[in-house]
Design a protein that fits this description.
The structure holds 2 protein chains of 2 kinds. In chain A, 49% of the residues lie in helices and 9% in strands. Chain A has 2 helices and 2 strands. Chain A has a two-stranded antiparallel sheet. Chain B has 5 helices and 9 strands. The longest helix of chain B has 23 residues, at 26-48. Classes of the chains: A mainly alpha, B alpha+beta.
Chain lengths: 69, 208
């Protein structure tokens, strides 16, 4: 197991509520969920940086590009 | 991460100490291209020339690990290598985001996805048989698979794991690992999607 470092994270009530909800929904600890979010953010950012685009497709196969900052 | 593990030397039948590690670098990818791929291609050529042996041709003969160099920096991707006396015997790529479970009882929950897993060709019995040579080590793929299950637990996924099995490996994942065959995936060359629940992962790690 790779060593880990600890940090304090300050969240609003609403953010904490979403974190709670997603943790239950995904059966993940809050820490695991935040780590997932970081990994996903880096992955998306890396692909957009190299010129790819991110799309969501609805049930009618309509695509909408997602702008990621 | 670098840990001692046991693999089986097929010449003696004895366990030998090898290392599994996640500090995989470009040099390891180059090693697979320089040392593995010529052997894989020679075996594939030999099999293609034998009557009724075409189905044994490894479907991974064209894999090129060096193309994955850019992914070495991604948190979402993790590589494992397995080496014996400094020589690479197996390599695996897993993804820890953007994959979710498909089994109804765990649908939508995150999992570790095994994207690629490969043993060195001299550790694959049917390839060596095609070249008239003995297999060198056993249990390389098993040790890498175990690392993926442990990674899932470390990620907080409780052992949930998924992969698309190549046709020649379906028996291994279903019968030996105890994965559930969920169905063919038309978006992935119609390969069989297999999945581990937390309970299956626990049983697997316990050797049941």
């Amino acid at each position: 197991m790779n060593p880990k470092r600890t940090m304090t994270l300050n969240l609003t009530d609403q953010e904490m509520s979403v974190l709670d909800q997603l943790s239950v929904q995904k059966d993940l600890s809050k820490t695991a969920l935040i780590r997932q979010a970081l990994r996903l953010y880096q992955l998306v950012d890396a692909r957009i940086t190299r010129g790819e685009k991110l799309f969501f497709e609805d049930q009618d196969k309509q695509k909408a590009e997602l702008m990621v900052l | 991460m670098r840990e001692k593990i046991q693999i089986i030397d097929t010449q003696t039948g004895e366990s030998v100490e090898a290392e599994i590690f996640d500090e995989v670098a470009l040099a390891h990818f180059i090693e697979t291209q320089a040392e593995w791929r010529p052997v894989v291609l020679a075996a594939a050529r030999a099999l293609s020339q034998q009557p009724n042996q075409g189905f044994l041709i490894p479907r991974h003969f064209h894999w090129d690990w060096t193309r994955k160099e850019a992914e070495l920096k991604l948190l979402a991707v993790k590589f494992y290598g397995l080496a014996y006396e400094g020589k690479l015997q197996g390599i695996m790529k897993v993804e820890t985001v953007a994959h979710s479970c498909r089994l109804p009882e765990q649908q939508g929950k995150p999992m570790v996805y095994i994207d690629y897993i490969e043993s060195a060709p001299w550790n694959i019995k049917k390839l060596m048989a095609a070249l008239g040579q003995p297999q060198r080590f056993r249990a390389v793929g098993t040790r890498l698979f175990e690392a993926a299950v442990l990674q899932s637990q470390e990620e907080g996924f409780r052992g949930r794991l998924g992969l698309h099995s190549l046709p020649g490996s379906e028996g291994f994942y279903i019968n030996e690992c105890g994965m559930t065959p969920v169905g063919r995936d038309p978006h992935k060359q119609n390969l069989l999607w297999c999945e581990f629940t937390p309970e299956q992962a626990e049983r697997y790690l316990a050797g049941e």
